[in-house]
Specification:
Residues 433-455 are annotated as: Disordered. The chain is α+β, with helices and mostly antiparallel strands. 47% of the residues lie in helices and 10% in strands. The strands form two sheets. A five-stranded mixed sheet has the order 1-2-5-4-3.
Amino acid sequence: MGGLAFSSGPNAIFTPRMRPEVYRVVRDRCQAKLRELFMAVATPIEGPAKATFGDVDLIVAYDKYRISPLSKPASSSISIEAQKEAVYRALGAIRCKSENSNTMNMAIPWPKDIPCEEMRPDSNEPVCIQVDTHFCKSLDHFHWMLFRHAHGVMWNIIGSTIRPFGLTVDEVGLHIRIPELEEVDKKKARVLLTTKPEEVLNFLGLKFDDKQWEEPFASDQDLCEYVATCRLFRVKRKATSASSDDNNTVDLGNPEIKGDDEVADDIRMLKANDRRRMAQRPLFRKWIEEFLPGCRASGRYPSTRLTRDEVREQAFEFFPGVRSIYDTTLVNCLAERQQHTLWKRVIKPAIPTDIEVNRRGCCAAALKKIILNDDSSFDGIVAPLNLKGSNGLFDEALVRAWVEKIWPVVLDVAWRINQDRYMANRLHKAAVKRTGSGKEKSANSDKHAEDLGMD
């Protein structure tokens, strides 16, 4: 959160930025205290050449109670809330907040043995340091989170680079998005490719043969140059539209567009989160406003044209088994959507509108049950098997043709069943009403006794 989690509101806490030497001392002390509670404790690689730090990030996994039979019975496992409480106490926090079950922001007192240059001499408010802790349920997730949050905003920059090709990196792993589902359900549109850092780097063409993932980059420029080695990195000459995430090609456009127009185009191409990031993250802003225009001016990275479809096929080849998951997810979601749209868009419109409204509604409802629910209660009328293709989706043209042919038969059957039920319901209500008086109830009871031979 950049040290701003407690900086506003009625009970704001003063959390000034830390010089690197202060940050390292606080980071190491916090890690040492949490290693008394967890087997895995670490901090992601920091961003390049940072002059100050807004907070300390800690990632932990495997509380010792869970894996040490000497501490507690092996079958026991403390909850996330209990872990948070233990961390809160261990670090001596004075305030905490949690936006989700796996993370916690804390304000801990500024160490008494370290001078604070921004301490306000005329104020009695406590000076604190923000510490953010993420709790992981496995070592694999622990390693992924260290990878995902390494080098500050680097993955935000990479994310903006690979997003137009249908790829997304989040707190879980690398995903490929299904374009047909993105506008309907963003979560369902994501298909997981991998949670392994080395596979992500290999697929994106990013090297890890030196110290790229062991220590911070020396400068912002070095980090940007490294990101630009991603095989999907391109410098667009002209932004074609705000919805280019879904465009199938990367448009190089008119090379004569220059300067501010190009930067404005780049900004318009960004998602809302990235535009906010430009205001909050200097390195991300530098990437958009300086590095990309510099590459464009020098003619770097302009030639290769990959499509989203091509990258998808590459992903299917690189990650075996994903294609079937992708196809199944797409079909299941489309089938679910079709259940909601087929009746209104195909079945109901295929019935003539000049029929009396109640009869038409009765017929449409019956056809909906027959086609979508495989209901055979309408005198055994069933939908032909060929209305569905091998992929499990309805062929809407065949459905429409069958409805146009069968609706008169379904109407007669459905209306008769409807009227029978209506009459049965009226008779039932009349019987209930008659038994409401004592005389009728007594007479009915005597008749029932006679029928049972209870004279």
